[in-house]
Design a protein that fits this description.
With 65 residues, the chain is of the alpha+beta class. It is built from 3 helices and 2 strands, in the order H-E-H-E-H.
Length: 65
């Protein structure tokens, strides 16, 4: 995103909807994303490319109890 990062967008939205669940998608590896401070405990992430089954399972896990 050119205006702000996904992390910044999440932080803005969370102020309006604190219970909102988020899933980060990226073509970068989890290690690269973690170095930018996005992957903290409790953050859901999936790396591109992914299959329909993989994204479905990740969405279910993200929305879980």
């Amino acid at each position: 995103m050119s205006i702000m990062s996904g992390k910044q967008l999440k932080e803005k939205i969370i102020t309006l909807h604190p219970d909102l669940k988020t899933l980060f998608l990226s073509g970068y590896t989890a290690n690269a994303i973690e170095q930018h401070g996005v992957l903290t405990p409790g953050v859901h992430y999936i790396q591109k490319p992914f299959t329909l089954v993989e994204i479905s399972n990740k969405i279910i896990a993200t929305l879980g109890p």
